[in-house]
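tool_call: predict_structure(chain=1)
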Amino acid sequence: MRHFFKSIPPLRLGLGLGFRFGLGLCWALGFGPTQAQAPPQSSSPPPTAAQPPATAPAQPPAQLSHQAPSPNATTGLAQVRQGAYVWPQAQSVDYKIELKTHGFTLRANATMAWQTQGSRYQAHLEMRLPWVGSRSQRSSGLLSESGVQPLSFTDKQRKEFTVTVDRERGRIELADHAGTVPLQIEHQDALSVYFELAGLLAGMTPPYPVGQSLTLPVFMAQTTENWPFKLIAQENLMTPSGELKTLKIERLKRFASDTQHVELWLAPSLGFLPARILIDQAGGDRIDQWIESHKP
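tool_result:
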């Protein structure tokens, strides 16, 4: 069985309220430190994860690789893949989001859209939060045998930041004169990483390599990180739109002092796009993002 996962980014939404709640894949929210809060009482219970069927085959333990990728890695995803990438169909997914911080609970909406035309793709993610406004990210680029190859990434809230990828010169030009970094073949931006994972998983033949990991280098507007992810389990997830079969993925620590815990539930029926994203921050802050609906 081949190595599977080791790193991925979260979507960042800076609200200017304190520290950052960063999930390259999700929203990096600025919130102040808080104590853990009990779930709010509601007339309708929140969605919960269902136990997988008792007949589901157990997955064997896997040997993990903890080595970080070299700056000039020439292998990476080519060794991880079990088959060709299979890209999600064009679609738009709507989410409900609950944010808990500093004793407050806020609710927001988000939409993720994905389109392809030949060997090119466009992706858009927007979060809308009452009284604060919206935060959006856009990614565009190429689809290749080596995976998603972003060419442009834009992050916009009050100010717009654009990152460009110069593939001829092998470098990433960060936004707002933040400098350049060498381009790796596995490099993703904070939005394209969702689709890189989706295409990778859809190209695999079950049983999936539960327990294995993969690291992806990810760039945001003005910085880059290595994101280690681990495939945890196959899990049935109860959502407002019904029960979905999913693969649960955990983002491991990006660095020794990382206090953020990220879990993703990727659904085959959505082309392995997220059905749920959960981000817990030390101190009790939390972002819980659930699928509400989707359409072609």
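agent: The CA atoms of residues 61 and 294 lie 34 Å apart. Proceeding to next step.
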